[in-house]
Specification:
Largest sheet: none
Structural class: mainly alpha
Shape: elongated
Helix content: 55-70%
Distance between the termini: 71 Å
Number of strands: 0
Number of helices: 13
Radius of gyration: 31 Å
Order of helices and strands: HHHHHHHHHHHHH
Strand content: under 5%
Length: 305
């Protein structure tokens, strides 16, 4: 292509882009903003700060490069602290395991999508490279289109790796938390989880009722309904929780050990001793025994140090 043709087409950007494609490592490939906005018809456009678009594009490229390492830290949904303190906050290891299962399923689905997108994009790149390897079969504009597509695909692959690694971090963190939770449990399977559901839900309800009483002095309408659905008398529970909240306020300790102790004791008393859940099911006409034949019976074995 002659200089005259290049000036006529206005694709100096393309010629530089084509040069970049031959020297960049595919895993780190990126087309700087200044390569696109710093040349061609928009380069001298007046931009913010009294600078041209080209000058601002160069400044943004430097800012992106300067903050690149931050993406390696904050490229996932939650920090390990957030998983432990905020997301896995049930006062029951099995319920937290259920949350882990749901989170891992979402991350696995995202990684599967990324995996197949990776394969498809690599195939597209290979096809384009084969076409560009025989330039005698291409006219100028076909070569332009193929090189732009190649740059786009390579940059998408490089950009996508940060999110892939973030999802990987989440799964590895969640797996480790699963192993830690297994230390608090005995061997269990799906049938065992079904049998424990009443205790799991009453623990959750008690915690939420305690928050209601702390805030307003009584159990909210929604929590009353939740208690009734489990089989607990809301009025009696409110009385017990008011007594606990007063005791809690007198504690010298700043931790939540007394909360865990109260919830565990109350749940065991209501379910194991008074069997409030079974009484309710009898009143409703339901059998309290879960169907074993529709449960997955492979045991989860606890981790022992």
């Amino acid at each position: 292509m002659t200089d005259e043709t290049e000036q006529t087409t206005g694709l100096t950007i393309f010629e530089e882009l084509k040069q970049d494609l031959t020297v960049k490592d595919g895993s780190e490939f990126t087309v700087p903003l200044s390569t696109i906005f710093g040349k061609g018809t928009v380069a001298k456009t007046e931009s913010f700060g009294g600078l041209s678009l080209a000058e601002n594009a160069q400044k943004v490229d430097l800012a992106i490069a300067n903050t690149k390492d931050l993406q390696n830290i904050w490229n996932r949904s939650h920090t390990q602290w957030m998983w432990k303190h905020l997301n896995l906050s049930y006062l029951d290891p099995h319920k937290n395991m259920r949350q882990i299962a749901a989170e891992v399923a979402r991350k696995r689905q995202a990684l599967n999508e990324a995996k197949w997108n990776q394969i498809k994009t690599e195939v597209k790149i290979k096809k384009i490279e084969e076409q560009l390897a025989a330039p005698e079969n291409l006219d100028y504009w076909a070569e332009v289109d193929l090189n732009i597509k190649l740059a786009e695909h390579r940059e998408k692959l490089a950009e996508g790796m940060s999110y892939v690694e973030g999802a990987m971090k989440d799964i590895l963190a969640l797996n480790e938390l699963f192993e830690q939770l297994k230390r608090k449990t005995d061997t269990f399977n799906e049938l065992d989880i079904e049998k424990e559901e009443s205790k799991v839900h009453i623990k959750r309800s008690i915690v939420q009722c305690i928050r209601d009483v702390r805030q307003s002095g009584f159990i909210s309408k929604g929590e009353q309904e939740y208690l009734e659905q489990i089989g607990v008398n809301p009025s009696k529970m409110e009385m017990k929780i008011k007594e606990y909240v007063q005791q809690e306020a007198r504690q010298e300790s700043w931790d939540v050990a007394i909360l865990h102790e109260f919830v565990e004791k109350a749940a065991s008393e209501l379910i194991d001793n008074y069997k409030v859940d079974q009484v309710r099911l009898t009143l409703m006409g339901f059998d309290s025994i879960p169907l074993e034949e529709i449960t997955y019976q492979k045991d989860i074995i606890p981790t022992r140090e």
